[in-house]
Amino acid sequence: MHFLWPEVLWSLLLLPVLVLGYRWMLRRRRKVAVLYPSLSLILPAMGKGQRFRRHIPPALLLSALAAALIGAARPSAQVVLPADYLTLVLAMDVSRSMLAKDVKPSRIEASQAAVKAFLQELPPDVRVGVVSFAGNAQLVQQITDNKEELIASIDRFQLQRGTATGSGLLVALNALLPDAGIDLESTLFGREFRGYGNAGAGQSLDQRAAKPPPIERAPVPVGSYTGGAIVLLSDGRRTTGPDPLEAAKLAASRGVRVYTVAFGTAEGVIPGMEGWSFYARVDEEALKAMAKITGAEFFRASNATDLKNVYEHLSSKFSFERRDTEVSSLFAGLCLLLVLSALGLSLHWYRR
Fold this sequence. Notes:
Elements: E1 2-3, H1 14-31, H2 43-46, H3 50-53, H4 56-72, E2 75-82, E3 86-93, H5 107-121, E4 126-133, E5 137-144, H6 147-155, H7 165-176, H8 184-189, H9 205-210, E6 228-234, H10 244-253, E7 258-263, E8 269-271, E9 277-279, H11 284-293, E10 298-301, H12 304-319, E11 320-326, H13 328-350
Parallel strand pairs: 3-4, 3-6, 6-7, 7-10
Antiparallel strand pairs: 1-2, 2-11, 4-5, 8-9
Helix pairs in contact: 4-13, 5-6, 5-12, 7-10, 10-11
């Protein structure tokens, strides 16, 4: 727990002063008390436990004051709450290494089944987009909350040669934050696709002028974007396209978390051409680094059950999230409860 106005906590030093004042008043009352000729007259009137009971209402009022002062300091705590309107972008590796059958019936079929189950478990307030990447990357399904369309897009995967992990992450980031000023074309294809300035070969002057230079944006804290996240699954090593670690740094500068999943085993074999086959090994170190850079998590799945468990874990994570939430209202409620308790006990015991 931390406090937005920690200076207010200095006022808690008043509490010991109030305790000393209360004790001083009790001693002063003893000095001016009326002398009774016999203790037998007052002991029955006091009743059992009267000596300690009379201190309970003042103690409750003192506790209420302490709660009020702590609440005035605006305490903030990390609590688990149902996720707000959330957007996820799934970036799926569809390179030919997904044909490997070390995961039954094959890597691609196992991943498709796990993703479909994942989509079915997501709460209705979560929207999802789907990006596939191999030698290049493309947005297979625009962001939507229609689960039928999402599942259909998973079935449309077509395997290709190459693994452009960085391209897949950049396309996913652009889908998640279309207004973030990400110059996707020049990043993926080179400056000639930027469409402004001296570049833009093959475009009219109007087309070149229509696209302004990208706006430089100040980076935000890592993991600070709470409106969505990216889940990237890969079973191989990057063979083409931008550096995925540089793409992860760009995502981190926008506050977007990238959860990465390494899928497959070291024994995976890609069926080749003309009798040739190739071993397919996932680049776990790169995926771990991508997750770390963006403040997210890395997962390893060597079979269909592992992959299903990973997606179940992610589903629960995106259904509920930890957020820093101001809890001043809780202390205000506690203060009110303590005051009412002190008044109620005082009225019940002393009729005043």
